[in-house]
Design brief:
Chain lengths: 462, 1028
């Protein structure tokens, strides 16, 4: 809004925002647009992308096999940096996994109609991100073959996990989040799976979609139950948006390491998670809507709204960065103070300033409407934010550990090629799952989008 | 074999059904199993042979073991009375290094020596040991040890046998050489009377033969200097406990001195201000030593300037205090460094202190200093009235220092073709002889080159014969301690590889019947101390014969003398001047003989903290002038000979000097230190390649510009620290390692407890109550010298693996107790504080709260237990540990145990401590296995564990008694007193961890004129706050 004067066109836009479904927008077209993707041969780009992702996934597999055979020493972790990239990656992916539930559940409860274009998409992203996230703590431990000891399974040793440990809270928080997200996603999929089943031309498709559609007929009573259940799940999932990342932040906040031991972490982590999650949705939606011809359903308006969220949460995160410094100074604790000076100006200053530039500075461009609505700009910024948020976790984890209380233990952390292979490989896992989803499942919630059409509004009681 | 023939015995011991039946086969077997005579050969360590030896050994303090003698073998089908399998036994023994015996006690489990301790009863040890003795069990079980006699046949090395060698001796030595013309033996220094007797017999057999002693690190200059004064082979014995003022002239009293343990203990008695008046230590040295680090004032000078400083002190004493006027120099050096204000002040302060403490001061000079310095020092001590008070000159009969000039003569004989057969009896001259003598070339001219040693080393591969030696833990031996006490070594295990001991080997060379070490030593012992069995047994049991120390020299006419000093040496070093290379045996590898011991390779140098390498150590200003920095490779040239060496910049290294530790760069040693045959690169740089016979301690050296990069690895300051890090470190150092001057302590004895102010600490939950025992540790920073023996003792006791250079570089070293070394003050002449840090066993342990599987838990006695079986390896505990004492098995560090040929390693493992698998966390356990052992012993008697029952490995080995351990609930215990000491503080107490290890603040006693006056601060306005 470089110009103070508002043109009449802009005024129109404010009073009557453009429809969330563009183009022809009748119900049949929507069904056709979305379902067709799962029925026809995918575009060449899909094959290229899928082959690439699968290759990278293979590399991840090899890295994990090597890791488990050899030991976690194949990574760069050391004393004092006992947690390195695996934990950074874990927090990074959990954060990405936030947007899905937020969009699905919270925006649903707040009756934000614009969510329908992107919710299926971001829910899928959530599930896959949490899969990636969940992998890291598992492969991160020294003895993966006894990792089931973290679950409260009755056993002959009469040994329970240690309930005071934030890592255990993590186990519960992340697994709950994954379960609820999966249920929520699947719930939403049921009517659309039935649509695909009904459109199926081969027996296998009909059989498989049929199984997962759970006999959905679209009867009134089913819709009634469905809507109730969806609402309940949304209500159930909403606190999880806050809880998961709060609990993840407890891993750090409840320890006594300077740089970790701060009360600001739970809200700061949640804001960061939403920030990174939305950025990832933009990163994925921009190519997907072009590739699969979904521009009418995932519209520029959707993207613009997401960019606004990115900007807002980016500033929240920036505030948290500033507040950490303030508290470090205000506390008068020399160890705390040193940690933050060291963060910004010590050996890892490069990481810190990458983080600040990507997370705080780059989203500021979204003050400009042109930028918010520019596909190239938003794509680049979303990538920046993804990078920045990975570095945020790196900065928190590694720079706090590398110089803690006793200077005799200070040491620098350098990643190994296995660290790189696991990080890049986790993207392989993510994109493999995501591309499979794009190929075989409706990327847009057909039933829900239909409710947002002008057609629906003119006839329904919504 | 009495037990077998005793058919009328009412009780029959039998070993097998065959035996019961007395079949002919069994009779044959019996004959084979107990062959008599010199042909006896055991192809592998057999249980029976071991039992024989065990039987022959006398247990220390266990009467039942006395029943076990060589002649009476009882099969172990029925357990002998008093023998509990798996319970340790302790045998007195001894290790000889450089001709000086270290009296030891070795712990043995079922015939396997697992741990070496000092011999409490002997004043040289008083229970502590050097790091070298600690590593002996590892050395014995080193798979790289030479395992069979080898012979070079037509340039090809072939496995040979002892019989073959006996044949060689018979045919060649006895047959051809006859009188020994052309026969020479090159042996290490030995003070063994039995060996000396054998040597006499050798020379009697071969009157023309040469017998030369060689040690790369010898105290010959000291001996020469004192010889000139006392007309005898003199050994100065220092009484540091009696010395108020100590001036050390490049003498590492607390480090590599042979009497280091007693020195450290005596020194420590004067460093606890509440016990006795404190002493004051001045140290003048080029390279940082432990003595320099412990000194109240250290003056870094070039080695060649030390004599000048002595002159200056002598002059000052004579002029100002009228002491030693007779032999005092007419003038003192006053140019160059001696014109510098700090040196002048130092001299004035030292002279003033020495004069004020006549009879209770001590001047000591190191083996690097020339004879004239030693003579002058002896004269000075006499003038100061110190003789008989703080220093005693003993006539070291039978224990001369090895004289390198003998080696020079031998090599020239070899060059001249006068040596037909050279026997290197446990020496490795190809590696460590002065480079200018070119031993290897001379050796090549010798027709029959025989090497006898533990390893197939550099000399062995160039020899025609290599005979494998038995380790001292496998053999009998005797030698004299530093004070002359006669000590005896007894074997703990049969030779693992059928090696021969030095006595037996020399006996073979003599070729007049087999010499069996035990009976030979017994015989010599009988001749010296009486033949009765009880005396011998008591001596073996005790490990030494009391009252056999050297006697004082009666020489009274001590001539005053001034050291010779070249005034040109006083010049202040400037860029362009030659550097002074300072050769010194390495603080961890000694002269290189221990190079294949991974524990010692990985043990950080106490001062540089480097592991797995030596480096050219240069002071900061000098390095700057030369344009060199850490990890730069540069070419160092001494007298036309050059080596490439990595540079390490070290505060406190004297300007213009470059410290060059010896002992690295082994090419034929083993899979740890370097082995050409297996393409294993040598570890570190061979500085012997620069050390010539005319510059054994110091030599002029030039250095090139940077020629490359070489990654040195240290356990502290892994990477160069930036300005922010330095500021942060400086900011907190005073809180972590607390210390002050004697005056500060007098004004505020509890100043250490007021260092950090924090709000009252509250606990989140109900804290543990400890009704039974409450274990705690105290570490006195005032007496700790940083020698790092605790680290090695802990490693030996707790089966701690080594990880190798790459992994240390990654920061994954495993030592449970590490030595943190901090510098403060001036970079060129810093003060050093050492701080041993192990698990602090916090009562509110942060590690325990974060473990998701409860693998680290609190015991009812306050131990922070680590349950390896339960650990899944999240490493969260390590993150939350403010002391970073937890160690993680990132990889399978014990992999080599499973490798072929390495099973022998398991022999020396402590059976009471689990060997950890990969993926689990570990850390100091306060030696919980020792607590358990004490508990079971006391519980059997229905008693409570007494103070002193539990001695941790680090505490036991500590020569300066800096570490104490015990039950804090026991009001009379030493540990309780230590914790209640005014100097006691808890590190990082403000975190409310409540550590169980207390540190006692380090007190220094600076000279008022040399130290800045301390500021008195007030603590009155902190009423609501707590201190920690």
């Amino acid at each position: 809004m470089a110009n103070a004067e508002i043109t009449s066109a802009e005024l129109d836009n404010i009073i009557d925002p453009p429809a969330l479904v563009q183009g022809k927008g009748d119900l049949a077209t929507i069904t056709e647009t979305v379902s067709r993707v799962a029925e026809i041969k995918p575009p060449k780009a899909w094959y290229v992308g899928f082959a690439l992702s699968l290759g990278i996934l293979g590399m991840l597999g090899a890295a994990i096999v090597y890791l488990i055979i050899t030991g976690v020493g194949v990574w760069g972790n050391n004393q004092p940096v006992a947690w390195g990239w695996p934990i950074v990656n874990f927090v990074f992916w959990v954060g990405i996994g936030h947007a899905g539930t937020l969009i699905s559940a919270v925006l649903y409860l707040f009756r934000q109609g614009w969510r329908t274009g992107i919710n299926r998409f971001s829910e899928a992203m959530t599930i896959f991100a949490v899969v990636c996230a969940g992998m890291f703590p598992a492969i991160h431990v020294g003895r993966i073959w006894v990792i089931y000891w973290v679950f409260p399974i009755p056993n002959q040793m009469n040994m329970w996990p240690q309930f005071r440990s934030p890592l255990l809270w993590d186990v519960f928080a992340v697994s709950t989040y994954f379960t609820v997200s999966l249920l929520f996603w699947y719930m939403g999929l049921v009517p659309d799976l039935a649509t695909l089943r009904d459109r199926s031309k081969t027996k296998i498709r009909r059989f498989l979609y049929g199984i997962f559609a759970l006999g959905w007929t679209g009867a009134n009573r089913q819709w009634h139950r469905y809507e109730r259940a969806y609402l309940l799940l949304a209500a159930l999932a909403t606190p999880l948006v806050l809880s998961v990342h709060s609990v993840v932040s407890f891993d750090f906040a409840t320890s006594q390491l300077p740089g970790w031991h701060t009360t600001i972490f739970p809200p700061y982590f949640v804001a960061g998670a939403i920030f990174s999650g939305f950025a990832m949705v933009v990163t994925l939606a921009v190519p997907a809507r072009a590739m699969f011809g979904l521009r009418d359903l995932i519209t520029l308006r959707h993207l613009e709204l997401m960019n606004k969220v990115i900007m807002a949460t980016g500033m929240l995160v920036g505030y948290a960065y500033a507040m950490e410094f303030f508290m470090a100074w205000y506390s008068g604790n020399k160890y705390e103070g040193f940690t933050f000076v060291n963060r910004a100006f010590g050996p890892y200053a490069w990481a810190y300033w990458i983080m600040v530039s990507c997370n705080v500075i780059s989203p500021q461009i979204f003050w400009f409407k042109k930028a918010r609505r520019s596909i190239p700009i938003m794509f680049v910024v979303s990538i920046f934010v993804n990078i920045g948020m990975w570095f945020e976790r790196f900065v928190i984890t590694v720079t706090s550990l590398n110089r803690d209380f006793l200077p005799s233990s200070w040491n620098y952390f350098s990643p190994t090629f296995v660290d790189w292979a696991t990080l890049i490989g986790s993207f392989g896992l993510f994109f493999t799952l995501f591309l499979l989803f794009c190929r075989y499942l409706p990327q847009v919630a057909i039933a829900e989008v239909k409710m947002q059409t002008p057609h629906a509004h003119s006839h329904s009681a919504h | 074999m009495p037990p077998l023939e005793r058919s009328d015995s009412t009780r029959k011991y039998w070993r097998s059904l065959n035996e019961l039946e007395q079949t002919p086969e069994f009779q044959e077997l019996v004959k084979e199993e107990f062959p008599a005579g010199p042909e006896q050969e055991w192809t592998e360590p057999s249980r029976r042979r071991f039992l024989q030896l065990m039987g022959a050994s006398l247990a220390l303090g266990t009467a039942s073991s006395c029943r076990w003698q060589k002649e009476y073998i009882t099969p172990m089908v029925d357990r002998p009375e008093g023998w509990v399998p798996g319970s340790p036994r302790h045998y007195a023994s001894m290790m000889q290094m450089g001709g000086v015996a270290q009296p030891l006690v070795v712990t043995s489990y079922d015939g396997r020596p697992t741990k070496v301790e000092g011999n409490k009863a002997h004043p040289s040890s008083q229970g502590s040991t050097s790091i070298y003795a600690q590593a002996a069990t590892l050395e014995m079980c080193d798979p790289d040890r030479s395992q069979a006699p080898m012979r070079m046949v037509d340039g090809v090395e072939q496995e040979s046998s002892w019989e073959d060698f006996a044949g060689f001796v018979r045919d060649h030595l006895r047959g051809q050489l006859g009188s020994g013309q052309g026969l020479a033996v090159l042996a290490p220094s030995s003070s063994s009377p039995a060996f000396a007797a054998l040597r006499a017999r050798f020379l009697e057999t071969y009157p023309q033969a040469r017998f030369v002693e060689w040690e790369a690190w010898s105290r010959i200059e000291e001996q020469k200097g004192l010889q000139g004064i006392f007309n005898a082979n003199i050994r100065p014995i220092y009484q540091l406990a009696a010395a108020d003022i100590v001036l050390s002239l490049d003498e590492d009293l607390l480090g590599i001195h042979p009497d280091q343990l007693r020195h450290a203990r005596d020194f420590a008695t004067r460093r606890r201000p509440e016990d006795r008046t404190m002493n004051r230590l001045y140290s003048v040295e080029p390279s940082f030593t432990l003595t320099g680090a412990a000194a109240d004032h250290r003056l870094p000078l070039r080695g060649s300037q030390v004599a000048g400083l002595l002159l200056a002190v002598q002059h000052e004493l004579a002029e100002k205090h009228g002491i030693g006027q007779g032999g005092a120099p007419a003038s003192a050096p006053n140019t160059g460094v001696f014109a510098e204000e700090q040196v002048k002040k130092f001299v004035t302060a030292v002279a003033g202190d020495l004069a004020a403490h006549r009879g209770s001061s001590l001047v000591a000079a190191g083996p690097t200093q020339p004879a004239s310095v030693h003579a002058a020092v002896a004269a000075l001590n006499a003038a100061l009235g110190n003789r008989g008070q703080t220093v005693e000159y003993h006539v070291a009969e039978g224990a001369p220092a090895a004289d390198p000039s003998e080696l020079v003569a031998l090599i020239s004989a070899m060059d001249g073709g006068q040596v037909d057969t050279l026997v290197c009896l446990g020496t490795n001259p190809v590696y460590d002889a002065p480079v200018d003598l070119d031993f290897a070339a001379a050796y090549a001219k010798v027709a029959n080159k025989v090497h006898f040693g533990l390893y197939r080393d550099e000399t062995a591969v160039q020899s025609d014969w290599h005979l494998n030696a038995a380790h001292w833990l496998e053999s009998w031996g005797d030698a004299l301690a530093w004070d002359g006490t006669y000590t005896i070594a007894q074997p703990l295990i049969a030779p693992l590889y059928n090696g021969q001991d030095a006595y037996g080997f020399l006996g073979m060379l003599i070729g007049r019947g087999e010499i069996e070490a035990q009976s030979w030593i017994r015989q010599q012992f009988g001749a010296a101390f009486g033949p009765d069995e009880l005396t011998w047994r008591t001596a073996v049991q005790r490990g030494f014969q009391p009252g056999t120390s050297f006697s004082r020299s009666r020489e009274t006419a001590v001539i005053a003398a001034a050291p010779s000093f070249d005034a040109a040496a006083a010049k202040v070093w400037e860029k362009g001047d030659a550097l002074e290379a300072v050769f010194r045996v390495d603080s961890t590898l000694y002269d290189g003989r221990f190079a294949n011991l991974g524990w010692l390779q990985e043990l950080p140098d106490p001062m540089t903290k480097l592991t797995w390498d030596n480096a050219a150590v240069i002071g900061p200003a000098t390095a700057k002038a030369l344009g060199l920095k850490d990890f730069d490779l540069a070419e160092f040239t001494v007298d036309g000979r050059s080596i490439q060496m990595a540079v390490y910049v070290m505060p406190g290294q004297a300007p213009g000097t470059v410290g060059m530790p010896l002992g690295y760069g082994r090419t034929e040693c083993g899979h740890v230190a370097g082995l050409n045959a297996d393409d294993i690169d040598p570890v570190g740089f061979n500085t012997y390649a620069l050390r010539a016979s005319n510059g054994m301690a110091f030599a002029a050296c030039s250095v090139s510009a940077k020629t490359g990069f070489y990654q040195l690895v240290s356990t502290q300051d892994h990477h160069a620290i930036d300005a922010i890090g330095l500021a942060g470190r400086a900011d907190r150092l005073g809180d972590l390692v607390r210390g002050g001057s004697l005056d500060e302590w007098r004004d505020h004895p509890d100043f250490a407890q007021h260092q950090v102010h924090h709000p009252p600490l509250k606990s989140l939950w109900k804290e543990h109550e400890y009704e039974g025992y409450r274990w705690g540790m105290a570490i006195d920073l005032s007496t700790c010298t940083g020698c790092s023996a605790c680290t090695i003792a802990c490693q030996s006791e707790n089966n701690i693996p080594i990880v190798g250079k790459d992994e240390v570089f990654r920061g994954r070293e495993m030592n449970w107790i590490r030595m943190d070394r901090y510098f403060t003050g001036d970079e060129e002449n810093p003060e050093v504080q050492q701080q041993p840090v192990g698990c602090q066993h916090c009562e509110n342990a942060p590690c325990e709260q974060v473990c998701p599987v409860a693998a680290t838990v609190h015991s009812s006695e306050g131990l922070n237990d680590m349950v390896y079986n339960r650990c899944i390896g999240t490493r969260y505990c390590s993150n939350n540990c403010p002391y970073k004492v937890r160690r993680f098995n990132f990889l399978n560090w014990n992999k080599d145990l499973a490798q072929e040929g390495a099973e022998v390693r398991k022999v020396s493992m402590n059976p009471d401590v689990t060997v950890r698998v990969r993926g689990v966390m570990e850390k100091c356990s306060y030696c919980v296995q020792r607590i358990a052992a004490a508990r079971s012993e006391r519980t059997n008697k229905g008693e409570r564990i007494q103070d002193g029952d539990v001695v941790t490995a680090c505490q036991q080995v500590c020569p300066s008694e800096a570490i104490h351990f015990g039950d804090l609930n026991d009001e009379g215990s030493v540990i309780r007193k230590k914790h209640e000491n005014d100097r006691a503080y808890a590190m990082l107490a403000e975190l409310n961890n409540k550590p169980r290890t207390a540190y006692l603040a380090a007190i220094r006693n600076p000279h008022p004129d040399l130290a800045p006056a301390h500021a008195v601060d007030s603590h009155s306005d902190h009423e609501e706050e707590q201190h920690g």
